[in-house]
Design brief:
two-stranded antiparallel ribbon; 2 strands; binds zinc ion; mainly alpha; single chain; 3% strand
């Protein structure tokens, strides 16, 4: 079995050697299928091994993790809840206060959009209202003219 023997070798030798051994090009994704994991590798190491992220990215991930750990938690001004340093909104379900300026801006942007949408609905409603009033006027005129005709006819009949 080519697969199981290569799997065994993958556990003994590195990926580079495996590529040489199996005569794959250095860009081939094939050796990854034969690399097995012990289960206690870190997520960045696994992602790196699977070729999802590069060396630099796994290093960046680590730095990011450390940065997040070093950053102080954000104390909510509204309810004094301590929030994760990267949270945009207060995690207290009774509060939900905006914690970041960018999130605040987004919220304002959303509110602005909603306001504009409402304004356009209002405008449409107004023009619809105007349309209805016009129809009402026309209907009234029509009713009046029918009434007038009936009245005229009734006069005629009396004579
Ligand atoms: Zn809060």
């Amino acid at each position: 079995m080519r697969h199981s023997s290569l799997t065994e070798k993958a556990q003994l030798i590195g990926e580079y050697e495996l590529r040489l051994h199996a005569d794959w090009t250095t860009t081939s994704p094939m050796p990854r299928h034969y690399l097995h994991f012990g289960g206690n590798e870190s997520v960045p190491a696994l992602l790196k091994a699977q070729g999802i992220i590069s060396d630099e990215e796994s290093l960046g991930n680590k730095l990011e993790e450390e940065n997040t750990a070093l950053k102080p938690s954000i104390i909510c001004l509204n309810c004094r809840e301590a929030n994760k340093p990267d949270s945009s909104f207060c995690s207290n379900p009774k509060c939900g206060m905006v914690l970041k300026y960018s999130a605040y801006n987004e919220t304002i942007g959303e509110a602005e959009k909603t306001k504009k949408a409402l304004e356009s609905i209002e405008q449409r409603t107004t023009s619809l209202q105007t349309g209805i009033e016009e129809w009402e006027q026309r209907f009234k005129k029509l009713v009046d003219s029918v009434k007038g005709t009936l009245y005229y006819r009734s006069l005629k009949c009396e004579n």
